[in-house]
Amino acid sequence: MKPPPFGYRAPVTLDEALDALAARPSGKVLAGGQSLIPLLNMRLAAPPELVDINRVAELDTLHVGDGGVRVGALARHTRVERSAAAAAVQPLLRRALRHVAHPVIRNRGTVVGSLAHADPAAELPAVLAVLDGTVDAASTRGRRTIPAADFFVGPLEPALEPGELAVSAYFPAAPPRTGTAFMETARRHGDYAIAGVAAVVTLDDDLRVSAARAGYLGISATPLVLDLTGAAGPHGDWTAAAAHVRDTVDPVADIHAGAAYRRHLTGVLTERALKRAAAEALRKAED
Amino acid sequence: MGEAREDTREDTFEDTREDTFDVALTVNGAHRTARVPARRLLSDLLRHDLGLTGTHVGCEHGVCGCCTVLLDGDPVRSCLMLAVTASGHEVTTVEGLAAPDGTPSPVQRAFRECHGLQCGFCTPGFLCTVTALLRETPRPTQDQVLEGISGNLCRCTGYQNIVASVHRAADLIARSAEEGEA
Amino acid sequence: MGTRVFGEPVRRREDGRLLTGRGRYLDDLGRDALAAAFVRSPHAHARITDIDVSEALDVDGLVAVYTFEDLPGRIGERLPLLIPHPALTHGRTGYPLARDVVRHVGEPVAMVVARDRYLAEDAAERVRVDYEPLPAVVGIEAASRAERLVHDDVPGNVGAVLVQETGDAAAAIRAAPHVLEFRLAIERSASMPLEGRGVYARWDADDGSLRVYSSTQASTGVRAAIAARLGLPTGKVEVIAPDVGGGFGVKIVHPWPEEILVPWAARLLDREIKWTEDRREHFVSAAHERGQLQDVRVGFDGDGRVLGLDVRIRHDHGAYTPYGIIIPIVTSTQLLGPYKIGAYRAEVVSLYTNTLIVTPYRGAGRPQGVFCMERTMDRIARHLGLDRADVRAANLIQPDEFPYDQGLTFQDGRPLIYDSGDYPELLRKAKAMIGWDGFGAERAAAASRGRRLGIGLGVYVEGTGVGPYEGGHVEIDTAGRVHVSTGLTSQGQGHETVFAQIAAAELGVPIGDVHVTTGDTRRFGYAVGTFASRAAVMSGNAIALACRKVRDKALRIAAEALEADPRDLDITDGVVHVRGDVSAAVPLRTVAVLSNPLRYAFDEETARATQFAVGRPVTEPPIAAGEEPGLEGRDYYSPVRSTFAAGAHAAVVEVDPDTAEIAILRYAVVHDCGRLINPMVVEGQIHGGVAQGIGGALYERMAYDESGQLLNASFMDFLMPYATEIPRIRTGHLETPSPLNPLGIKGAGEAGVIPVSAVIASAVEDAEGVRVDAMPLSPDALHTLRQRAAADPSLIVRAE
Fold this sequence. Notes:
The structure holds three protein chains of three kinds. Chain A has helices at 14-23, 36-41, 77-82, 84-89, 91-97, 103-106, 111-117, 123-130, 148-151, 229-232, 238-248, 259-286; strands at residues 7-9, 28-30, 49-52, 62-65, 68-72, 134-139, 142-147, 152-154, 157-158, 165-172, 178-186, 193-203, 209-217, 224-227. By secondary structure, chain A is an alpha+beta fold. In chain A, helix 11 (238-248) runs antiparallel to helix 12. Chain A is globular. Chain C starts with 14 loop residues before the first helix and ends in a 9-residue tail after the last helix. The mean pLDDT of chain C is 96. By secondary structure, chain C is α+β, with helices and mostly antiparallel strands. At the B-C interface, helix 4, helix 5, helix 6 and helix 7 of B face helix 1 and helix 17 of C. Chain B: Residues 21-97 form the 2Fe-2S ferredoxin-type domain.
């Protein structure tokens, strides 16, 4: 289990990184490496060249503003997880990050890398999707902002062009009177989830449900986002919302769980997460 | 399949002699250098190029935790890191946990006192992980201990005595801090 | 008497090096050796039509590539069938490198030797093998149907049929007031030590000798096999098991293909070669265990006493049978557990499949047997509406019934006679530790808060310390150091400590003076190996016997020096002295000097042993008749049959009514392995076993698809428990000494794992009220059970 040979560049500026990617568009970006290097070690990936961005200091950023959290391409999971400011602006981020593998992996893995890996069983894609976040991509041709809904094209397939680097991700802040919850069921603590849900519930001034959304991981080829506002109704019938989800989803089966169990589990987690998010929304509204 | 393989070959095997890179890093306080191909894993650099075989390799896909070392003080999987990426950084391996005079660290002592190891293969990874855990959280709760070591597999101990060792190490560290103050 | 060391929780002597990175595991050796890698079959069943290595030859750093065609003489012969058994009528083994046909994914097809492992893998990737795929046989049902064959010349895919019976089970069942019939299933798991296998060979061309390091549980067996295959005298082959990163059974198999090929190539090339198995290789080319289907018929009376039991065991042994049929033999015999079963018949059918070979993994067939018997006990209790513990109690062998002859033949070919035990006390203690009697109230209180709890238990007997023998050698040197060696190997069990405890206690020396070597043929050439919970019993007793010889000799020599009667002498803290008179004393280091009459002194101490210093009468030879120079002794322990340890486990589980997740809230173990040498070490063994048992009960399985691909060949998907999955384990001990051996001990290595699946199944069934017949039990499986029970009331179990 040793990686196949590859060319290697270790740029120190973003421009150099983009030049390197432009020169070898089939090259792969190496950031935290916690997903890429296992694939290399198993020789399931054999990129001709790696562009190692670990020395590009300008990508090691975490900006927290009132509007949201912008995470640079080199910010490790642990850094984001520990940021009280980020947790205050968008609590879902920390809640989901605590489910990402194990602490040692989070020390090295990056948030943007996880998004760009686009594993449908991973936590962060579902979070970005349910929040309608965005990914900023750059290449020598320029920069663009890709909405989450367009970013996840298929399993392990992000909407990045050859030569393009995901430089940051933006997680919008929670609106007022909004609660969030993240829940997942994994076979072992720290494993990829059998199913998981990131729930966001917003109340109006009269404490009625004005928005209820859920982002799912582990059940489809890309993160699935469902707007459950209608299904839950203004008074938050979470059981009905869960039933709606059970009827809607079409989960995939794998060696850890069949489709029927995943469907059932998705319903259970939906109801639990929405309840918890709604309770938090209510607390915030009453504050 | 065959075609894809051909492509890969042309791209990567124009000449099977690989480029090599100079790597310079601090390992257990000592400046070390080596010249290695880009694909050399940090675990292999430590074990085979630098002869520090205390860091073990149990899965080479980042799950077992045997190869955990401290990179600038934080535990990381050395099998999931290229040696070239580690260049310029500071690495601590199990060989560097004891005091310079050879006195075992509190974590090492605790594992011995509590029978926290059997075959010893996973042990260096646990020791590095726990050393960092207790630096971060000197008085961990039971749940914090479990979470802290949750990325390290042990097939021998059933974790019972490893958990006990972590608590014991916390005691030893606290005691030596008290003695230091007194 | 000295400091008491036997029975004490002495801290481990191996830990110093293991905690500081100074352990020497296989891959830590041979830094300059060439690396081997293997091309392995990607197909479960295929004919090899062509192998083209030409592309591999382009890799810079390649040294050699070998296929079956390159293997001369005995190197290319089929691997040995290690344990032939008369019932194994169709035993088959593979070739070191596949010849014509591959029969499981991972079977080695070609060996590559290169400058390092990276390059070896590059070259292996470039070896082109053309396969003509053949239909694969996967799973016990498919093997039984035999629509396809794994081996053309093995009809029905049946390797062995073995029937054992005592009494007329069919008649007893016919006559019984109650009869139940059901099927049970256990899936595959694997030993999965964190260090894989590995071999490192050094050929000394000048000396014509070979040194091989192997991560093995049987260094003497590896040596015998290598010597035979390479045509070398045994004395020219040294095999050393260095520090070994766990074994749990898988490393008892030998020789592995790699253990022949690496030394052979090292000699051929006259270069050091090392092969370190990686994790993916380990999943598909080492060995698995556990997979069985069991069809049970049981007849019993109204008190739950079993009158007749008939079990048909279908065992999946994979593509080849190098280890014979030990596992299903163990299942069918140890299934009886601590119980008196009126009449019993077991039929074992051992089947070929196109999957990895099946060889012992800790427990070695016992977890399946205990699962069968304990599920049967629970079935009976539910059927009769009785307490599950009471049904067990009604069937237990009583303490005054030992030795108890079960009337069968055990895995060592010897009668299944239990030597000692107190099973009712084990059950009583386990119930007390888990809170069995008060559990009704606990369950009700939890239920009122919407929580669903269940309790379960399991009792087992484990035959340990199987023969044929082990030996021990003890030598006291002139510095007073005691060197103890035994041929069997260590994989983390703490042998360096417990054998030192035995030696220190027997000899009356400080434990710090004792140095233990295991698994090194340079030190001890005769041995069987480490398996079947036998190391402490076999080598422990052999070392004790060797120590007694040395002690006697020391007393004889000291008596002469002290002009005393040896019967009046004792040894304390390494000093021989007249009992009650410490002034009349001589240290063992001096006795060691005196034991070796010298012509040439090399220091002042040894001058005492030279011919002008020793005061033996000139009419007698310097070494008395029957004596040998040196303060050393060797002895062997060879028991007439196994000794039987036992235990009872109990657990409380909680199941999530919605997600079907299963959590173990409490786990209790009561264990009886006779006299304890080191309770700390024994507890450690139990802890580890229980964790592996929990893995097998809730997490671990080998997910083969119908084409024979292993879908979860990584630690991502083969779910070994982390600390977060293992509850706190409470342990209690009972000490019923074995009357069979001098130390009164029984084996402990496998105990923890044996009843866990049975206990968890019992507890989950209790929590859910839904029958549990198959393990492991995932949340999905439990959810599916709930759905099925909702549609089929026959799957619902009655309350006690």
